[in-house]
Design brief:
By secondary structure, the protein is of the alpha/beta class. It contains 21 helices and 15 strands. A 5-stranded parallel beta sheet has the order 7-6-5-11-12. A 4-stranded antiparallel beta sheet has the order 1-2-4-3. The structure holds one RNA strand of 77 nucleotides.
RNA sequence: GCGCCCGUAGCUCAAUUGGAUAGAGCAUCGGCCUUCUAAGCCGACGGUUGCAGGUUCGAGUCCUGCCGGGCGCGCCA
């Protein structure tokens, strides 16, 4: 309908231009927006106001002229000029009920574009270092990225969801070494654990598994490991230097094959756990992309070579630098260290280049807001490589601050308080967890109150929406109990009986869903879906309280049931985008 | 110091991306269950959108400068 109104206005415009009422060269976008207020009809057009200057004429006069030139249309009942020069469109009753017919006909596809023919987009999210279980801090990125992916899919994009696995860095060596040290302790070796080692229970569990699988094959006397070590941080030394020395010695003592054995087991175990955790949270990536594979397949050298060929690299202080300042970055960045190793940034250049080489039309990186410093240099590298940096979007997700009632939770690993995503899921459930994480726009800090998320009360917006869905299901159960049946076709034939204000408000809300999906997808803002659903649920509850659906009059009853079933379908579709279930009973 | 993000009702946040009288929830107060689930509904109270300028038919939204808060500024990942 929106498009049809647009077409009508365009026709009126060209008529006025032909008559010379407005300049022929005036280029004005015709924006059809949904009226906020029922008083202003269904749709509003602001074209007259935009034309005022170039036409040197009062907006209201242009609006009057436009209305006069407007072709008639069966879907439009009435057109008014209002306010400073808005043109308000009132839909005919028949056109106004179209959303009900659409929602019932399309079912799970209502509001969702045709799948599989849009641009290909890569959404990268979570990408947490596989050095331990997911933290509640990762939960928001997971919920956001997943909802965004669903939203883009619904809007017609072909979405590929990816997790970038940082399996190549020093942190991974610290993990592997931590596991081995715990393994040695399990075998009865006496040694002190490094300050910088990973101390979580999961490290001991991996160590125990290593012992079960490999017995004492990897056992080395602790004496060999501990001989002539520098002082650790708590001993007055440098903890970074200490752990690096322990890592180096572990590699020497174990040899390449055995060290890799420990490394792989640690990585695989942690990654399996992360995957399982995400699945439990309704989050599914299509692929896990290994940073190490970039190295192994020469992708990093490939990227650096391209930069070199373009003259974007130079040598200084023994290292190789990328002249990112030439592309707007604050300072140049090292890509190859003095010791010959490439940096994490070099991997990132190669990874992003790889994304585009795989043929995606667009890429979106969802990451924590603390990584925003990375945007400039990654964009710079893409530009240097001859790619269009505007095809890569960054969505920064701010931290979530957890509360238990009014008490703010400290989320340090050390405190042993509520820290993992799994614990959060266990406590509040996937539905509430996912909903609360995406309730706020991503760049806004999020206060996540566990008590509220758990509460089965009116305060809890998740239940409010789910309850609206369950109530409609309950009505249908009541219908069956009364040995009545719903004749859908009869209902659709009598939609005109739905004349109550609450009914029109509900139809209106249902009709907004398709454009909401489009808008929210374009803005990459899943929170719009959450807010929309709250409004839709409110329209359902209000209607429910004001009117009986199961009335004697079969025509009216069938029509009302068509309306609430359309609402139920819309709630279901919207909740699915957020990864939240739509229970039939509560 | 430089860069990015954020300042909206007592609290937590929206605002169709520049539109009409800035809206919800919570909290407070007052109503509604003999009727399809009260996890619901209706009403009241609550605002100089951090401050000061600017841009235009129109600014919470855009530009400038302040004030306040968060994050970032490694040959770490």
């Amino acid at each position: 309908m929106r498009e049809e109104i647009r077409a009508l206005v365009l026709q009126a415009l060209s008529r006025l231009q032909a008559e010379g009422r407005i300049p022929a060269d005036a280029e004005v976008p015709v924006q059809v927006e949904r009226a906020r207020d029922r008083q202003h009809g269904d749709f509003a057009v602001n074209t007259a106001m935009l034309l005022a200057r170039s036409a040197r004429c009062k907006p209201r006069e242009i609006a009057e002229a436009l209305v006069a030139a407007l072709p008639s249309h069966h879907g439009v009942a009435r057109v008014e000029v209002a306010g400073p020069g808005f043109i308000n469109f009132f839909l005919s009753a028949d056109a106004a009920f179209q959303p009900v017919r659409d929602a019932l006909a399309a079912g799970g596809a209502y509001g969702h574009g045709v799948a599989g023919d849009g641009p290909r987009v890569l959404v990268e999210y979570v990408s947490a270092n596989p050095t331990g279980p997911l933290h509640v801090g990762h939960g928001r990125g997971a919920a956001f990225g997943s909802a965004l992916s669903n939203l883009l899919t619904a809007a017609g994009y072909r979405v590929h969801q990816e997790y970038y696995v940082n399996d190549a860095g020093r942190q991974m060596d610290i993990l592997a070494t931590s596991v081995w040290l715990r393994y040695l302790q399990l075998q009865g070796e006496q040694l002190r654990f490094p300050d910088n080692g990973y101390r979580g229970d999961y490290v001991r569990e991996i160590a125990a598994r290593l012992r079960d699988l490999d017995g004492d094959r990897l056992l080395h006397p602790a004496g060999n490991l501990l001989a002539e070590l520098p002082l650790d941080g708590s001993e007055g030394g440098d903890k970074e230097n200490y752990i690096d020395t322990v890592i180096a010695r572990s590699k020497t003592l174990l040899g390449d094959d055995d060290y890799q054995r420990v490394f792989r087991l640690a990585l695989d175990t942690v990654l399996d756990d992360i995957r399982d955790d995400l699945h439990g949270f309704g989050v599914r990536h299509d692929s896990y992309f290994s940073e190490r594979s970039l190295e192994e397949e020469g992708a990093i050298e490939h990227a650096l070579e391209l930069l070199e060929r373009g003259g974007h690299l130079y040598q200084a202080d023994g290292a190789t630098w990328f002249r990112s300042t030439a592309f707007g970055d604050e300072k140049d960045r090292v890509v190859r260290r003095e010791n010959g190793a490439t940096t994490y940034f070099a991997s990132d250049i190669a990874y992003h280049l790889n994304k585009f080489e795989r043929g995606f039309d667009r890429c979106i990186d969802v990451m924590g807001a603390d990584h925003h410093g990375y945007i400039g240099r990654v964009r710079a590298s893409l530009t240097a490589l001859g790619r269009d940096p505007d095809l890569l979007d960054f969505r920064l997700v701010q931290f979530a601050i957890l509360y238990r009632g009014t008490q703010r939770l400290q989320m340090s690993t050390r405190s042993g308080q509520f820290v993992t995503l799994r614990e959060l899921r266990d406590e509040v459930g996937t539905d509430a967890g996912r909903f609360f994480y995406v309730l706020r726009k991503p760049e806004q800090h999020l206060d996540f109150d566990l008590e509220l998320a758990k509460s089965e009360s009116a305060d809890n917006p998740v239940y409010y929406i789910q309850y609206a869905h369950a109530r409609i299901c309950s009505v249908m159960r009541q219908l069956a109990e009364r040995s009545l049946e719903h004749d859908r076709d009869n209902g659709l034939d009598h939609l005109a009986r739905l004349t109550e204000e609450h009914e029109q408000a509900l139809v209106n809300a249902i009709g907004q869903y398709p454009e909401l999906v489009t808008t929210a997808a374009a803005a990459a803002e899943p929170h719009q879906v959450a807010h929309y659903l709250r409004d839709l649920a409110n329209a359902v509850h209000t209607y429910y309280n004001a009117h009986q659906f199961l009335v004697e009059d079969a025509d009216l009853r069938d029509a009302r049931l068509c309306l609430v079933l359309a609402a139920r379908q819309t709630i279901r579709n919207g909740l699915a985008l957020l990864g939240v279930s739509a229970p039939e009973a509560m």
